[in-house]
């Protein structure tokens, strides 16, 4: 899950970690072509070294990172779990193909929701993409996530681990509590979800004026067409003022942002 914690360092670190992993994996592939003796383990050791370096500098809990031997962990995912702070339910690793699909195609494998804790520490749906299979089941922003696969959500629970791999067909059973306090049990399979980076657009009354309201979630290549469409809408509404809500925006492609 993503873009929820109120720490810019955590979010920036996560994106940097993705970029460095992408670089390391590409470099490792090139090394394989030059030297057939390079093993998968060697590649992972290199990736884990980069992971630790980035987390040491950018991670929200970087001063509390444990001292561990990376060679004891067979995969980057296992190494991340060893380094993860017990308060961290959100960090995850995205491989190079996932990374490119996210930024270039605007897709990722998952349930199509973003989750985060409210002021009381209760885990809620922060937003939901239009293409989410959970939206088809009636899930909306603000619903509480009470449990996942029978595990009650409480402090210390690793939500990322509960949800499993980001692959098509991976199923999870959620117990949600809606805004009226009713429980809903929903089983959903992960799929390639199309990201709508414009989460909402509308017009609000502002005294005698009209204010356009845009909630924008991430800077990815498909965002350009979405933003063009949104501002065409605002022009057609003859708005006087503009509100751009970036609360859930964790950054993205610089060429899209400018």
Describe this structure in words.
This protein has helices at 8-34, 40-58, 76-83, 96-105, 133-136, 159-163, 223-236, 254-257; strands at 107-110, 113-117, 123-128, 144-148, 151-152, 171-177, 183-189, 191-194, 198-206, 209-216, 241-245. Helix content is 35%, strand content 24%. Helix 1 (8-34) runs antiparallel to helix 2 and helix 2 runs parallel beside helix 3 (76-83). The chain is α+β, with helices and mostly antiparallel strands. The strands form 4 sheets. Strands 5-4-6-7 form a 4-stranded antiparallel β-sheet. It has a 3-stranded mixed β-sheet with strand order 9-10-11, with helices on one face.
Based on DSSP secondary structure assignment, what is the total number of beta strands? 11
Instruction: Note poorly predicted spans.
Output: 1-41
Helicity level: 25-40%
- C-alpha geometry: globular
The tally of domains stands at 3
If you compute it from the alpha carbons, what radius of gyration comes out, rounded to the nearest whole angstrom?
A: 20 Å
Mean pLDDT: 83
Strand order of the largest sheet: 5-4-6-7
Question: Whole-Å distance between the termini?
Answer: 26 Å
> What kind of sheet is the major sheet?
4 strands, antiparallel
Please count the helical segments: 8
SSE order, one letter for each helix or strand? HHHHEEEHEEHEEEEEHEH
Beta-strand portion reads 15-25%
Structural class designation: alpha+beta
